[in-house]
Fold:
Amino acid sequence: MLIFGPPGGGKGTQAKLLAEDFGVPHYSTGDMLRTAAAERTPLGTKAKELMDAGQLVPDQVMIGIVRDALKTPAAARGFILDGYPRTVPQAEALAQIFKDLGITTFTVINMDVDDEELVRRLGNRVMCPAEGTIFSSDLDDVRAGSPCPSCGKSLIQRDDDRPATVRERLKVYHAKTAPVLTFYEKLGVVVTVDASGSIDVVHREIKALVGSPLQS
Ligand code: AMP
Structure:
């Protein structure tokens, strides 16, 4: 299953819930890049520069990361892919990866939210620097500097959630990522969900729409 949508659309939150529901791994390319950045690997350092500027990491880098993740035994029974593909070339490369791995069935969950709501959500969210868990001051009575409800570390605003970067991320989303939806619509694999509701409501809507999509 691919979770597709704009920044702040709730991809990561829903992907985690669905991965738990179905007992499959959740691969978030954003999380992978943030881990690499925290470890200060050469890839991570370069990726952080791009992420903080609201830009995409180059396709060839992302394709390699995703190919490596999907060919592991952990992914053999299915997986939730979150944050990839973000460009048409990435989608084309994924088609080849699926072909190589014999994957024939998949669904794209399109999380539909308008820009105004996205800007509001991104401005309100904070992250645990230790676990990467996202919280929202809308829901969790937390803000930057509050202790993480789970581990106590001081919560931070993601560098790429600053207003100027958010504007750039949305621009990049509309220019480069939105065309990916057309790519998948042509294949008839898209399920669109109104993602402006609460976490629970959106989760239930997705489950009702997709049932249990895993191959036995
Ligand atoms: P996310 O956590 O999914 O919002 O991703 C955070 C940032 O990581 C994005 O704004 C991009 O800079 C980078 N990123 C994540 N996934 C990809 C991808 N598939 N292609 C290019 N850049 C990506």
